[in-house]
Design brief:
The protein is mainly alpha-helical. The chain contains twelve helices and five strands. The protein is globular.
Length: 277
């Protein structure tokens, strides 16, 4: 979480007899960033797809984690590559593997000791990168004393646009995830990416943030209730027309209520528990 990024030394100290290291949870960090600054119009994020680990605030967070862990003799674990293998499309699968490889090259180059992936089929790619660039069992010897990260670095808002495609994707992902969650699945592949509670929460809280701060799309349209409802009805119609075994309407209602609520809920799953069968 964002607050935890400011207390990594303290966390390592308090758990010193039990802790192995810290994990760079990228999706949880973005979700926490949105929640922390939910009422700040100057901290509105762009499309979810534009908030990558190469943006300044996430790269700063990652490098500070490595420096802090290695100074204390703890392991620095990289983040999850969300791609999943794509069957029956060799070109698309190759592109997905290339993205995983580039992500792991960044991590190993920065000094992470290990990493993780969303699907076991991607383990060989991650292992190949780390085996090629880490001669020993870890990189604890890389203290990264060159890293100079300030509070401002951890809080810098990334650039980028808010697009209709980005808004629609957030709506679709949130509805699909919630529908699957209501049927007992907490981790769901959507559009060849593994979505979990944190990624779905990013989609949901961004919708709330954009609506309540009156953010504008890159084409100039203001994001208001009417526009979001139009997009939501459209995405729900598409989902329901293609699949009938998941409660999309129920999920859409949960999303609608959470998005239009005066206060941004800490977790949408808290309200969703009342709908579990």
């Amino acid at each position: 979480t964002l607050p935890a990024a400011f207390e990594m030394d303290e966390i390592l100290y308090e758990l010193r007899d039990y802790i192995a290291g810290l994990n760079c949870g990228r999706w949880d960090y973005i979700f926490s960033y949105i929640k922390t600054f939910r009422d700040r119009a100057d901290h509105v994020l762009p499309d979810r797809g534009a908030v990558t680990m190469t943006t300044h605030f996430l790269r700063s967070y990652s490098q500070l984690l490595i420096q802090t862990c290695h100074r204390r003799g703890a392991f620095a674990m990289g983040g999850m590559a969300a791609q999943v293998p794509i069957k029956n499309d060799e070109a698309a699968n190759r592109d997905a593997l290339d993205k995983v490889r580039a992500d792991k090259l960044r991590e190993v180059g920065d000094g992470h000791d290990g990493t993780w992936v969303a699907h076991p089929g991607l383990v060989p790619v991650a292992m190949e990168v780390f085996d090629a660039h880490v001669p020993g069992p870890n990189q604890l010897g890389r203290l990264r004393e060159d890293v100079q990260v300030t509070a401002a670095d951890l809080l810098r808002v990334p650039g980028g646009a808010i697009t209709e495609a980005g808004v629609r994707n957030n709506i679709s992902v949130a509805i699909q995830y919630l529908a699957a969650w209501l049927r007992g699945s907490g981790c769901v592949p959507i559009n060849h990416l593994m979505e979990d509670a944190a990624t779905a929460e990013i989609a949901r809280t961004q919708l709330w943030q954009w609506l309540h701060h009156g953010a504008a799309l890159d084409d100039g349209r203001r994001i208001d209730t009417a526009l979001l409802n139009h997009f939501m009805d459209s995405e729900l119609f598409t989902l329901a027309a293609n699949r009938h075994d998941l409660p999309f309407a129920e999920a859409a209602q949960l999303l609608h209520e959470a998005t239009e609520a005066e206060e941004c809920a800490e977790f949408i799953t808290l309200a969703a528990y009342d709908h579990l069968e």
